[in-house]
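Collaborator request, handled under Task 6.
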Amino acid sequence: MKVILLGAPGAGKGTVAKLLTALDGSVQISTGDILRGEVQAQSDLGKEAEGYMKAGDLVPDSLIMGMMEKRLQQPDCEKGFLLDGFPRTIPQAEALTELFGKIGITFDMAVNIDVPKDIILDRLCTRRTCENPDCQAIYNVKSNPPKVEGICDKCGAKAIQREDETEEAISHRLATYNEKTAPLIGFYEDKGMLLSVEAVNSDAVIEAIKDKLSL
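Structure tokens returned to the collaborator:
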């Protein structure tokens, strides 16, 4: 499958992507992973992106699209891909449409995971993340706490609340999402390429996608 996953921070895009990879071997792709990979490899694109990141600036769309073009043509994408949290803006969506045409990709649909704001706030405020950059395991103090409070089960490092997951920070992230990313719902709806799923659990989203794609 070739699917774009949309939804507010905390809607469950990453979880849904991981579950979908098990269905048909599609690969989960996020711009964060691509950026880290290119910077670590010290590719030309990675070096250029690193300069912006070190200065605290956003990496320009032109660079992001260059990395996305490279990533989508790697062999593991032949079975399909799940774009997790990309595109984030209308200009990125328009550039992605052009890129798909350029490299001959026909994608199946964009899936909007629609979760109520109060549930998103609760999910993110209770999330804890392993501070070890090589681990980054995610927990939830209510639904999936670490066995020892504040300690990662997998590597023994601290499981912390990220600075961007306080209630104030989350409210700001949601406001940014509503301003810049939510318009993508209309963008793909106008193209007849949108599946919107109102669900508070990942299984319901998976079933809706499987039903739409007849999997």
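The cover message to the collaborator said: "The chain has a mean pLDDT of 91. Residues 167-181 form the longest helix (15 residues). Please let us know whether this matches your experimental observations."
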